[in-house]
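Researcher: Next entry in the queue.
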Amino acid sequence: MTKALVLGGGGVTGIAWELGVLCGLQRAGVPLGDADLVIGTSAGSVVGTVLTAGIDLEIAVAMQTASTSDGSGSGGGGAGRVLTALAVLADPSVPVMEARMRVGAFALSAPTRDEQSYVAGIASLLPIRDWPARELRITAMDTADGRDVVFDAASGVPLQLAVAASCAVPGLMPPVTIDGRRYMDGGIRLGAGADLAEGADQLVVIAPMAALDPARIEAEMASTGAGKTLLIAPDEAAMTAMGQNFMDPARRAPTAQAGLVQGQALAEAVRAVWPG
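Model: Structure for this entry, 276 residues:
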């Protein structure tokens, strides 16, 4: 039986909440670290790396209160630029691939920090330098043509570059150069990347931004053919803790705590899908 765990995007608060949920489930006796496949997008690529590296989740959650820096150097500004990109993607009059290419052009032209220091900041968040032994897939998007790209251990792409590309929010972070091409946040594909778990028997999706388009994520999950599935979205307490700015590092601690509580409360629901 193949178990797949999908971790969606959601910025700094998304990382904190996902770690909290995973740790809360672990405390309740339902660890998801035994997944055969982990798929991470943006925030989920960071959390997926932590999980597949075998890092103690208690320590990972504790670190969410250790500092107010997220390592990306994005700070809390730039929200208007992010909304500009989202508005393009949400416009039904613009064909999907054209919208992605427009966002790609925007990402390339937006004023951000330099690429080298950004990648170094992301690398500082990661507990390992090499790809983990457990299967981890990380999503990103080509700025030039809008195509989806999935990086894994077989891709030959360094882990820190794959994660940095997946986290490169248009307007906030610079696109990341890999083999002469520039890549941006995998979350631009919208959804959660659950469709990449095709063939899984058991599927759990943890999506910080599920409220934006739950139907899309549910369609992704259905496309996998998995017999048992569960979508975990932030509950009301978690949404309050996250606030309106998903890149606000000051929200990390309360969001991680909300995730811990929610994860423990979800133990039975997850156990029904993900038996030990």
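Model: The first helix runs from residue 11 to 27.
Researcher: Noted, moving on.
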